[in-house]
Amino acid sequence: MSAVRAHVVVSGRVQGVFFRSYTQERAYQWGLTGWVKNRGDGKVEAVFEGDEDKVKEMVEWCRKGPPGAHVTDLKVEWEEAKGEFTSFHIKYGY
Question: Which of 13, 27, 87, 88 could form a disulfide with 70 if both were Cys (CB 3.0 to 4.6 A apart)?
């Protein structure tokens, strides 16, 4: 399977519910690289790179999120993988 990149923006009650830490845990489990961060507008933004099937699973997981989250919208931009990441991390700050 080829590597892909998904850039997502998640809206709803997605901050203050450990969305970033759950996302990082899932990304580790599925062998994905990239990052996740809170945005100043209350949304969560992330970039996932890796095996196409796993990235698709991660995007689908983001549609629901962790316990306590209430996702109202998910925007996804599919791109070619750039291979610029060596791990998956949480970005802090806006």
Answer: 13
Q: Is 5 a catalytic residue?
A: no
Asked whether residue 1 carries a pLDDT value surpassing 80, the answer given is: no
Please identify which of the residues 5, 13, 26, 38 carries the catalytic annotation. Answer: 38
Return d(Cα 83, Cα 91) in angstroms, integer: 18
Of the candidate CATH numbers 2.30.110.10, 3.40.50.1820, 3.30.420.40, 3.30.70.100, the domain formed by 3-91 belongs to 3.30.70.100
Taking a C-beta distance cutoff of 8 angstroms, is the pair 42, 25 a contact?
A: no
Query: Which entry of 13, 20, 26, 39 is annotated as an active-site residue?
Result: 20
C-alpha 3/C-alpha 66 separation (Å) is: 25
* Catalytic residue list contains 38: yes
- What does the pLDDT look like over 7-49, one tens digit per residue? 999 999 999 999 999 999 999 999 999 999 999 999 999 999 9
